[in-house]
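Hi L., both proteins are below.
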Amino acid sequence: MASLLQLLPFICLHFLTVIASFSSSNQTPKPYIVYLGSSSKIENGEAEDTELAHLQLLSSIIPSEESERISLIHHYKHAFKGFSAMLTEEEAFALSGHDEVVSVFPNLLLKFDTTRSWDFLEAEAGERSRSTWSNYRNHQPSTDVIIGVIDSGIWPESPSFNDKGFGEIPSRWKGVCMESPDFNKSNCNRKLIGARYYVANKSDTGSARDYDGHGTHCASTAAGAHVANASYYGLAQGKARGGSPSSRLAIYSACNAFGCLTSNVLKAFDDAIQDGVDIISVSLGFNQPYLHDPIAIGGFHAEQHGVLVVTSAGNAGPLPSTITKTAPWVFTVGASTIDRNFASTVLLGNEKSFQGSAISFSNLTRSKTYPLAFGKDIATNLSVVSQARSCSIRSVDPNKTVGKIVVCISSDSTIPWELFTRLAEGYILVDEDYKYVPSDSGLFPFAVVGNSDGSQIINYINSTKNPTATILPTVEVPRYKPAPVVAPFSSRGPGAFTENILKPDVTAPGVAILAAIVPDEESDLAGEKPADYGFMSGTSMACPHVAGAAAFIKSLHPTWTSTMIKSALITTATVYDNIGKPLKNSSGYYANPHEIGAGEISPPNALNPGFVFETTTEDYFRFLCYYGFSNKIIKLMTSTNFNCPKKSSHELISNINYPSISISKLDRHKAFRTIERTVTNVGSMNAIYTASIQAPSGLAVNVYPEKIEFAENVTRVSFKVSFNSKEADSGYNFGLITWWDGQDNYVRIVFAVNVE
């Protein structure tokens, strides 16, 4: 059973916060990463030479009397070059100016950012697509696709990682199954084909075994085997499976209970690419510039090797501009709900009831009610009444919570859960956003209600001399509507580092997802066997949904490149919920592309997308130019003689061949702005597509030609989109271009245009 601290949504949802944990003194050695760019193919015999070269680089700046520091913590040599070592701030600065060095940055700590979710995604795809999806699944997809999961490790005994029905491991696999006292080579099998772990220094111990549960949950969501009768102590019972049960898994344990070190994450990327994975799923967060971000660096080199990198958008929503993973070479995923809720009913003494949201195994019943108290009415003193409304620390009198059910209005304050669970009988949180996010409270009676219900509960308290209530144990609410809804915690665009790439790319299920976990031997459910499956919420859970969908597409279209798969999932995403209305956010407003990207993924539709946008390596090189990196840096990163175009500016980022369009600044006083895209046919030969446009009033959008045709020998065609903002409202304008072949294929391109 999860700790009661997990009740707090922004703890339960694994907020993606970067923590610097080292001394600020510029003379105290600290772990740094030295990134040296792309690795020209290093043969085995040359590995020692590169390590020696890196040691010589260190010795050039570390004083001879401190020669013990001339050693490498990690050595990156496969997909990219570099190392991590102990340096002072001055030494790091000196190294950053070296001709061979791209960047030097501190070794910081990253934090972690199903029975129904896959069925829900299929149900939303439409009858024809569901039929196509079923037919494909019945044709036994390839088992050669390998998903690498960079996370907290794996619990190999979970039934989700059973290898029944799997043949021999693909001969191209170069990975290993690293042993430790609690993890044997026998823990790997034909499904779980590899496991590595990483430590901060050579004196540390490590293991690929997962003790957090995050990595196990993500791995089983992406590629877990079919498991009948999975549930969390009876809740959400059904068949658990990942998005691509036929895919293999390779685990890279780069994290521990405290988080994930940058150096470990980079080493995991380097190994995963070399080992031969096809897709990397990484549900971790970082808020640093591209050349200091291990996911941006690792993702860039993975893409150069044909590996699709899928990553979580972050859990810093619902504020705008909270998304940091804006590099075009990573697939960034926001989170949404599915059509299942977990209701914990609040029953008042006046017999009115309200359906709250929670995962609570409360032993309270209808037959007995308890005194009900609003936080501000049990404040420690008059000076903290306003804080007591939200039950912030030290604002509530502990003695006045005894035996009561306490009501609090959500705020950013930290809530004293230990106080409530030790003395109170139950807890009701009023939070409009988090009524969609059920948190696990174990045996403690708990419910989250929206603002309207919360107001009625507080009015009852104020109008009654002796208000009472009870909180009933959670029951599952199936076929919940509307769904999907954008999760309140899901990070929003526009991007922090560039607004000319639309992020997030898509959304996927990320709220109360049931998947494999680490069994909790200290469960407080007396007499119950520890659960093998449990719920987690966050964009961390949405990420492996997309990784699993991508792997399944890869298994059926093995010749498709990573960018073709990414395009297929983006351009076939849906913007409608299960009642046929446009997707909404948790506040009840229509969601925009900065919240949902192109929309909710629709894997069945992505199997036959019609045509795709292939974003090339040259597109990514041009992105680096347009972003402002020098030719010298780009040549180090790419090991090519690529030269930047003479005209390179940030606004030209909008022109790279991406499956969506974002323009950070459109001057209403200029005539128009034209964007060009090139598409590749993966559907019927001789297909003709016609464009239709949905644009806000005042924004003139034109596509030319209005029809594109793929003749027998023509597989690639281009089109242009012009935007004129003279009459448009200021700020971001969102819209959609849909190409239709007159039959079954609809290719949708979302655009976001900021008018100034």
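That was the first. Here is the second:
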Amino acid sequence: MLKAKATATRELLSLDGLWRFALDGAAGDEPWRATLDSTLEAAVPASFNDLFVDPAVRDHVGWVWYQRSVRVPRGWAGDRIFVRVDAATHAGRVYVGDELVAEHAGGYTPFEADITEVVTAGGEFRLTIAVSNELTGTTIPPGSITVTEDGRRQQKYLHDFYNYGGLARSVWLYSAPSVRVTDVTVVTDVDGSTGVVGYTVATSAPAELRVRLLDAALAEVASASGTRGVLRVPDVRLWQPGAAYLYELIVEVVDGDTVADTYPVAVGVRTVEVRGSEFLINGAPFYFTGFGKHEDTAVRGKGHDSAYLVHDFQLLEWIGANSFRTSHYPYAEEVLEFADRHGVVVIDETAAVGLNLAVEGGLANGPKRPTFSPETMNDKTRNAHAQAIRELIARDKNHPSVVMWCIANEPSSHEDGAREYFEPLVRLTRELDPTRPVTYANVMLASYRDDRIADLFDVVCLNRYHGWYVANGDLVTAERYLEGDLTGWAGKFGKPIIMSEYGADTLPGLHSVWDIPWTEEYQVAFFEMHHRVFDRVEGVVGEHVWNFADFRTTNGIHRVDGNKKGVFTRTREPKAAAHVLRARWTRVGSRKPAAQDSTGQIDSNN
């Protein structure tokens, strides 16, 4: 889905700000038919949970209602008029006046409705958006809802971050011509010093198309016509990690000498390839350094915030990180656009986290239900998962920063039924985008001995916590376990390995001269141990620390004020480990460090 943009033929109106707000049941039946009967106002974009002090709002499970009045610009007469919701977590319904105009399931990808027939240019209308935060066995991510003896509905889920709900991203009103560009797909390659830019364009009706490629100085470097073609760029400037260069593809619907519609797409010319145990960008081995992150800040919850966007990328640059994973859902489009412009590499992930009932049984010390069965994660779950993959790729396929699709985090890949569940999803991902590698993040419970699906993927991503959940406080034993684990995966599959999660909860300001977990010194020693092992194991091509910053989780006796594995606090102050990572990552750049033996001496033979 194309992002809503203001161009010479399209206009864009932000609907962000304060909206009337009410919980379902508190505003009467069919609340979209009149002004919401509520004194509450909620900010958009923001999750609703932490905005208010009433626990009934924070703990609400079900639908909530947002409403505001919107005036259509009078100059939009003759154009098509759309309302677009960048995200409604986890399901949304849009009403214009009394009419339902759009419904969508999935909390992190956009949806829109053509409302031309129910609004008038220059007129005003009542816009109501209902949002549900419910998770079930057939949603992505999955969950379940229980009802207490006193009638309260409670949401249960298997992922370790807070289930924020609401309109966490922007809402827009925009206009576009009747005959317009509806989709653009760009695929790049390199032929010697020439850049190759393949394009495919869809339109709302048959139309004559003109395509122009501009360089960063806005000089035209190539052009073509038609819905499909290839542009060749002599002496191309590549999009490189840490050195982004963007061209602009201008797609125009033309009628004689008149431009009926125009839409721009940023283009970074680069190649991505997996060759043996190497991950190559533009033909050169690339070593990932960075983090798993979260869209998570105080008060806003998962609400997109441009100030935090800028500051977080500044911290990534300061610490020497060249990449991150969008754990565990697609991030706001503005994040990927920023990564495109600044040369930061992204592993783009669906919201498929929690497909693992073995974890449920382990935490509860109870019987383990099968993850994949007609009664648990079933065909309906997989259908929702497939739709999440389709929408992720449709939205993010043109971003040069996105070098790999991650279709799930920590599924129970060692269980019966895992292969039957995932094989069609991997096939779908490759059909939708044959140009990027595909991966998933493997959970500790699934070893290289019994994992059922790793051979389906291009890259092995491992989430491991040796020294924290295993051998806690004993880094000597943890180092032995970790090296055995990594060499096992490398030997069996011969594929690139990224440590997609490794970390230790750390309280800022807690210190000790001994190796005591939760201290800043332990987090430092924990990372240093991992880095020694990474440097010794051939095939490791990246390290993503869990996590960039502390973040909010659900209530639990194993969490005090959220997950504390951040290298930065939730308010972005660095812990001691941040300086250790900075020293390492600014030294290695995008190349794997030289191998070291167990004493820390460099092995000159590697």
